[in-house]
Specification:
Elements lengths: L1 E7 L3 H12 L4 E4 L8 H4 L20 H6 L9 H15 L5 E2 L4 E7 L4 E6 L4 E9 L21 E4 L14 E5 L3 H13 L2 E6 L5 E3 L7 H9 L1 H10 L18 H12 L4 H5 L9 H18 L3 H6 L13 E3 L11 E5 L5 E5 L2 E4 L3 E3 L2 E4 L8 H4 L2 E3 L6 H4 L18 E3 L12 H22 L4 E3 L1 H16 L29 H13 L5 E3 L1
Parallel strand pairs: 1-2, 1-6, 2-3, 4-17, 6-18, 7-16, 8-9, 8-16, 9-12, 10-11
Antiparallel strand pairs: 4-5, 5-6, 13-14, 14-15, 19-20
Helix pairs in contact: 1-4, 1-14, 14-16
The structure holds 3-acetylpyridine adenine dinucleotide (N01).
The site of 3-acetylpyridine adenine dinucleotide (N01) has 29 residues, from helix 5.
Protein name: NAD(P)/FAD-dependent oxidoreductase
Keywords: FAD, Flavoprotein, Monooxygenase, NADP, Oxidoreductase
Cofactor: FAD
Length: 529
């Protein structure tokens, strides 16, 4: 069977991309591994799962109907509400009909003679298309460390990114949570409320911000809609896809007292970007960063009763923001509970699971349940897990063996007519994802419209353009503190993964202008035939 375009994934990107292709009059087939739309927000149903972007800003802006007809309830939306929103959008755009659900794409092979991609699925179907668009998400391939004894453990193991849909009852259980990133800090307080005892195994402490979540007021909801045009302009002009008021002075232009007042006022805004972007040099000057890092550590000491525990919870290695700042509700307070203990596995790493629990280099912990909050093979994982073969049978795995190389994060040389929405080398996760998705989807739709209008068969990134774009992204990242964080931003969380920043740090606004000028300049850096 042949269709004009195949879309992989039915999260935010997949449903919008499908809508845009349909508007162009193209035939589209979509494949989604889950039973319905939602992407990452379908799978991450662990208790406490909540977005770290304010609800009103974590929504599409391209359609006035969508804006008018949806109302958020909380300032930071919980997973069920976001999933309802994505479902609402998919219904409204009427795109579900293009998707096959419960079907995973396993392979995609480019045919030189026909200039078509043939996609193979786990249901045994093969479908060919002129355009292959991956909307597979940045955080959709979960990662579980390859611990010894995983199979021998007689209790239950869970991963936050593959949570049982009917929930888990921890009452009376001895639970261990491994990982203190965004997922860990959200799930830990919730499990602590139920479990007989919770042991948190922490390798690196997190800089975490109390999200101060609350219901949106009627005024806030009304004002956001009334000022939507201003918001659109401001978010498009911003580097992070969220308007932010960065001061016009650097950190050390302010006295210690002035800085403290700035940080304190922004802490109360409960919005991470307001803190990390308070001064322009916080993410590029380690000494400046140390001032805000120490402010965050002070907040931990204010909350945690036991000074030793507070110190163990205090990040000292990575700069604030080099790993994602986590957003929490009662995270640090949880360590004041009698039924919670913290184990640092930094110097005494986890050796593995035993039939009765977990063993570190220092001790053994009897457990009934082990929760992996150990994150994702991010950004490249979802693409590399598909056997994608471009010209001359070249696999994406080979192509990216030393790290991903893309042009604008959307195209890979030797892989014609492949568009990777929010792929490596685009601003993706360093921005408000929904904004980044809108930009990438709209740019892709315009490119496809152009190709159709000129009757092109193939569209491919030029090798030099891709290499130069990727080198530029690395150069820009090297001017920042991002490379100092051992995180999924750089692939450092996955053993053996090439260590390279996978996001364009130059800002979504600059990126948008670059993409627009590439298009205006007759798609410079692309080879069209
Ligand atoms: O994953 P992570 P996540 N032994 O990679 C630890 C988004 N998200 O699922 O830091 C012991 O951040 C690891 O330790 P270390 C958000 O973008 C958003 O929490 O590598 N520990 C770390 O503590 C986020 O950034 C929201 O030393 C091990 C943890 O596991 C992204 O998803 C909510 C280990 C993994 O943290 C990923 O977050 C949830 C080992 N062998 C997720 N291996 C919101 O919107 C790993 N760890 C709020």
């Amino acid at each position: 069977m042949t269709t004009d375009a195949i879309v992989v994934g039915a999260g935010f990107s997949g449903i919008y991309m499908t809508h845009k292709l349909e508007q162009l009059g193209l035939s589209v087939r979509g494949f989604e591994a889950a039973e319905t739309v939602g992407g990452t927000w379908f799978w991450n149903t662990y208790p406490g799962a909540r977005c770290d972007v304010i609800s009103t800003e974590y929504a599409f802006t391209f359609s006035q109907d969508l804006i008018d007809e949806w109302e958020w309830t909380e300032r930071y939306p919980a997973q069920p509400e976001i999933l309802r929103y994505i479902d609402f959008v998919a219904e409204k755009l009427d795109v579900k009909k293009h998707f096959q659900f419960n079907v995973r794409v396993e392979s995609a092979v480019w045919d030189e003679d026909t200039s078509l991609w043939t996609v193979g699925t786990d249901s045994g179907e093969y479908v060919s298309a002129k355009y292959l668009i991956t909307a597979a998400g940045c955080l959709s391939t979960s990662s579980t460390p390859d611990f010894a004894g995983l199979d021998a453990f007689e209790g239950t193991t869970l991963h936050t990114a593959a949570w049982p849909r009917d929930g888990v009852d921890f009452t009376g259980k001895r639970v261990g949570v491994i990982g203190t990133g965004s997922s860990g800090v959200q799930v830990i307080p919730k499990i602590a409320e139920q479990a007989a005892h919770l042991t948190v195994f922490q390798r690196s402490p997190a800089f975490s911000l109390d999200c101060g979540n609350r219901l949106l007021t009627e005024d806030e909801k009304r004002m956001f809609k009334e000022l939507i045009e201003d918001y659109k302009v401001a978010s498009k002009a911003s580097g992070g896809g969220q308007p932010v008021d960065t001061l016009e002075v650097n950190t050390f232009d302010h006295s210690e007292e002035e800085r403290a007042a700035v940080f304190e006022e922004r802490w109360d805004r409960h919005r991470a970007i307001d803190l990390i972007a308070a001064y322009p040099d916080l993410l590029s000057n380690r000494a400046a960063n140390d001032t805000i890092a120490e402010f965050f550590r002070g907040k931990i000491r204010d909350v945690v009763d036991d000074p030793e525990v507070a110190e163990t919870l205090s990040p000292r290695e990575h700069p604030l923001g080099a790993k994602r700042i986590t957003l929490d509700t009662n995270y640090f307070q949880t360590y004041n509970r009698d039924n919670v203990s913290l184990v640092s596995v930094k110097s005494a790493p986890i050796e593995g699971l035993t039939p009765a629990g977990l063993k570190t280099a220092g001790a053994e912990y009897p457990l009934d349940v082990v929760v992996f909050a150990t994150g994702f093979d991010a950004i490249t994982g979802p693409l590399m897990n598909i056997d994608i073969r471009g010209r001359n049978g070249k696999t994406l795995q080979d192509k990216w063996a030393d790290g991903p190389v893309t042009y604008l994060g959307i195209a890979v040389d030797e892989f014609p007519n492949l568009f990777t929405i929010t792929g490596p080398g685009s601003p993706n996760v360093l921005t408000n994802m929904v904004c980044a998705i809108e930009q990438h989807v709209e740019w892709t739709a315009d490119a496809v419209a152009h190709l159709e209008s000129v009757g092109a068969r193939t569209f491919e990134a030029d090798e030099t353009a891709a290499k130069e774009w990727t080198a530029r992204a690395v150069e820009l990242a090297d001017l920042t503190l991002y490379p100092e964080g051992n995180s999924w931003y750089t692939g450092a969380n996955i053993p053996g993964k090439p260590r390279v920043i996978m996001s364009y740090v130059g800002g979504l606004n600059v990126f948008r202008e670059t993409c627009d000028s590439v298009a205006a300049d007759n798609y410079t850096g692309f080879i069209t035939s």
